[in-house]
Amino acid sequence: MIPFELLEPRTLREAAALLDAGDDFTRPVGGGVAVMLMMKMGVLRPSRLVSLRSVEKRYSEIAVDGADLRIGALATLRALEKSPVIRAEAPVIARALQTLANVRVRNVATLGGHLAHADPHMDLPPVLIALGASLVIVGPAGERTLPLERLQSGYLETTLGRGELIAEVICPRQGARRAAYLKCTTRAADDWPALGVAAVLEAEGATVRDARLVISAATDVPTRLVNAEAVLRGAAVDDAVLARAGEAAVAEAGVVGDAHGSAAYKRELLKVYVGRAVQTALGLR
After folding, report:
1. Strand, coil or helix: what is 72?
2. Which residues of the chain fall short of a pLDDT of 50?
């Protein structure tokens, strides 16, 4: 790695100001998992790193705030996995974390970094989007709120402006909604997925009142499957309904191939995994 300057601001706003005033090679670092890997590979050559480890502790906290969960962007993935609040109020998140990378990564990686890295293979973005999460973003112009589904603009690209940092994730509590996240990996369960599908349903028995379906890994950005959701909405779930939802998902998703599977292979996976995710959320499998 080439030499770089390390800055350690005491507040998130100070960190945002340093990033705004820096050059194009100044980068923030939380847990540093992705940044360090990219630096070792020579893909990223920053002149300065702005460490977020010493900013206000409230950005590492996990708490209930009325109907929502407020999760600090500097909370580690392991803290989320072990949090009694997450397990009680959004158990689908805790379950998804059990096969996210490995415990060494989860001990270090932060939620904000996980989201801001914008790799479409990440596990939490589809889950959080399906739950209806939004972001509190701090930048030179102050704070703004952004629906999480509008964060990623492309492969490893976000809509964050210069100097902007994710401060918190605001996620509605799961409540009575039924939810599941399934992923298909080519090797170990904690490997990068070829496809991820998150389903969050309001249901009475096997009848779906409302549905939110999000896929990842098969598309350049996590993607809502609005047409498949429409097939499910108001329907009593059976094999025919699930088959129609799978076909609708394939028709609307811009599936792309990569090292984890061809586009054709992922489309076939999508047909099956939409139905499996719905059945799992409803406790039918």
Report:
1. strand
2. none
